[in-house]
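Hi R.,

Here's the chain you asked about this morning:
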Amino acid sequence: MTYNVNSIPDWQNLSVLSENRVPSRSYFIPYESEDACLSSPFFCDRKDIKSKRFELLNGNWKFSYFRSVLFVPDNIFELEGEEIPVPSTWQTTGYETWNYVNLDYPFPVNPPE
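And here is the predicted structure, written out as tokens:
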């Protein structure tokens, strides 16, 4: 059976690996000039970086939780959602329970050497 790539939802489409994402790249802090770069401390917390081209994503973000993709409404991008702190996990903010198993593995742990 063949599928039209445009007829299946993105979450089932293996050709869609991400959406609205900046492409991966090497991590460098971009500065607008050499002087701006040299005036910034070499070792500093990220919050102390003084570049107009660098923005931390930490803060409060709108978040909508759905137990399954089957419950996601068609107007998902119009929803307000609740604010959660980033970075965090949705389990620490009251959504869902932790996925933790307090048992031994049912098979021997034998990683490659």
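One quick note: Helices lie at 34-39.

Cheers,
M.
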